[in-house]
Inverse folding.
């Protein structure tokens, strides 16, 4: 049976997380179809057709899917999903929003945030903020799954030559409407896919002090993240939060500055390849997971690090 | 407007969990349990709606074995009016929980159903969405602001790129993000009063809810341990290690 992957996109380009979900799907095995649902999403569909390993792209181009409202999109995905063995989406806020609804419409369970594929019906996923790894077997005829992007490599963006097919079905439930959006602007790489992440915590003291992290990040081509403490204190916007309830990252290098390392935060970054912690508290739990620990005042250490790199 | 809030009893968020030696699950014996933090935020939001005169009654419901009555009493002490325990095994899957909640919501004719966005034990982030689908109601997940405007609801949601605002027709399902509010502490007099508030016990059978079993837990293991790192004495040494040992910076 074929696998349906729900593409995440902004109508013109595919979001990186889609490519990781494609890799997870290819590990399950079977023909791979990609669904691009949106409004004026022709360019995203073209991009989807180029992705290596994808044999067919389904395009649902309609105003009803303009903002991926869960009520409309879930009906479309559930209708299409009946003909597939697996329906897969990246575990982004969009995937998390829509997929459980799809599962309920199909009357099946949903597996969230899988980190490994063991077979076509058995998967691993973290539970208890990543402090335990569960191996779960799905008993349902259709497996509805969201994929943790950082646990799978991205599929190649080129090399594929999928056919593109329009989907006529329009589901407009008419019970919800998009009002507006406030998107944080940044020239830095996206947090979840950055090779290097520099994060600040409560130790930063205030929002202005994040400037020294931003300077360091620009030198390293890094994204800037934050702990929940820094977000709750209003230092930075919440879409920068790394952790169980924020974003999950696994970069090559994670630099934690003024972050104590609560369980909640570790859940979002402990799969990073190399972890550096800079903290003046020798007892901070972050030092237990850091490859390189520096006990120092961050206001001296960070500018010095910036100067020496 | 009647508000229904679903709450879950989970391990306290500060506890470091241990996996059982036979790898069947995590060890919950003699571990401190608490109200799931996201559920606490949902209760707080409901109580604020009542204090604002928007909600007329706040009903809390929990699904699980008898000890979850403790968490229901906590919710009552925080300001909920009455509680329902649906007596079932703990750790039911999300679809079963959603089916039970659907029956309770229909019986109560709730106008707004509030849940946490995820439980910190299973980390599923599914129940609210499934409930909304089963009831064919609109949903607003990861809410950081909820405003009732007559027959509709304006909700600001936390999304990957920032914030998004939706308008939903009531009745609706909303799941809470951490930023929605700061839950209050229950005062001693309120804890005493909560003991006298009504708490009904029902069963899934009475409610006519069918349980599902779509997935089987095969094993639970501790995650791979990270190698203990080293302490560097200076920024210079750190840069040297990153360049020459870890080779992660140029």
């Amino acid at each position: 049976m074929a696998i349906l992957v729900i593409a995440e996109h902004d109508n013109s380009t595919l979001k990186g997380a889609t490519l990781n979900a494609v890799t997870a799907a290819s590990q399950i095995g079977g023909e791979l179809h990609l669904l691009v649902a949106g409004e004026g999403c022709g360019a995203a569909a073209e991009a989807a057709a180029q992705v290596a390993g994808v044999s067919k792209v389904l395009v649902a181009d309609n105003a009803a899917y303009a903002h991926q409202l869960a009520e409309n999109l879930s009906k479309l995905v559930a209708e299409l999903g009946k003909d597939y063995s697996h329906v897969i989406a990246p575990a982004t806020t969009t995937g998390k929003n829509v997929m459980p609804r799809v599962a309920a419409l199909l009357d099946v369970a949903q597996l969230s945030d899988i980190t490994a594929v063991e077979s076509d019906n058995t998967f691993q996923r973290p539970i208890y903020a990543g402090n335990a790894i569960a191996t779960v077997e799905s008993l349902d005829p259709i497996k509805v799954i969201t994929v943790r992007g950082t646990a799978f490599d991205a599929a190649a963006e080129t090399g594929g030559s999928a056919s593109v097919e329009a989907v006529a079905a329009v589901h407009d439930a008419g019970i919800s409407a998009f009002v507006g959006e406030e998107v944080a602007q940044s020239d830095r790489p996206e947090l979840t896919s950055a090779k290097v992440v520099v994060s600040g915590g409560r130790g930063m003291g205030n929002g202005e002090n994040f400037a020294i992290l931003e300077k360091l990040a620009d030198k390293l081509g890094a994204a800037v993240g934050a702990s929940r403490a820094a977000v709750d204190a209003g230092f930075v916007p919440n879409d920068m939060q790394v952790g169980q309830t924020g974003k999950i990252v696994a970069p090559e290098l994670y630099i934690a500055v003024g972050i104590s390392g609560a369980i909640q935060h570790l859940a979002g970054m402990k799969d990073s390849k190399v972890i550096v912690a800079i903290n003046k508290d020798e007892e901070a739990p972050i030092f237990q997971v850091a490859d390189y620990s520096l006990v120092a005042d961050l206001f001296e250490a960070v500018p010095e690090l910036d100067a020496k790199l | 407007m009647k508000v229904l809030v679903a709450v879950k009893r989970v391990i306290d968020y500060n506890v470091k969990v241990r996996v059982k030696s036979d790898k069947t699950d995590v060890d919950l014996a003699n571990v401190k349990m608490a109200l799931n933090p996201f559920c606490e935020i949902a209760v707080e939001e409901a109580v604020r709606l009542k204090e604002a005169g928007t909600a007329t009654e706040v009903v809390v419901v929990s699904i699980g074995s008898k000890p979850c009555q403790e968490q229901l009493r906590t919710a009552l002490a925080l300001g909920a009016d009455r509680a329902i325990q649906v007596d079932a095994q703990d750790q039911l899957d999300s679809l079963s929980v959603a089916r039970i909640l659907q029956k309770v919501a229909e019986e109560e004719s709730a106008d707004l159903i509030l849940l946490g966005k995820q439980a910190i034990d299973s980390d599923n982030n599914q129940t609210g969405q499934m409930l909304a689908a089963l009831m064919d109601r609109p949903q607003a997940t990861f809410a950081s602001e909820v405003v009732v405007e007559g027959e509709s609801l304006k909700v600001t949601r936390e999304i990957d790129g920032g914030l998004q605002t939706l308008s939903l027709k009531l009745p609706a399902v909303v799941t809470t993000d951490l930023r929605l509010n700061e839950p209050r502490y229950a005062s001693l007099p309120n804890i005493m009063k909560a003991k006298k508030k009504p708490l009904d016990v029902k069963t899934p059978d009475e409610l006519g809810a069918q349980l599902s079993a779509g997935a089987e837990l095969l094993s639970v293991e501790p995650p791979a341990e990270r190698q203990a790192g080293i302490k560097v004495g200076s920024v210079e040494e750190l840069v040297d290690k990153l360049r020459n040992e870890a080779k992660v910076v140029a």
Notes: Chain B touches chain A through 82 residues (CB under 8 Å).
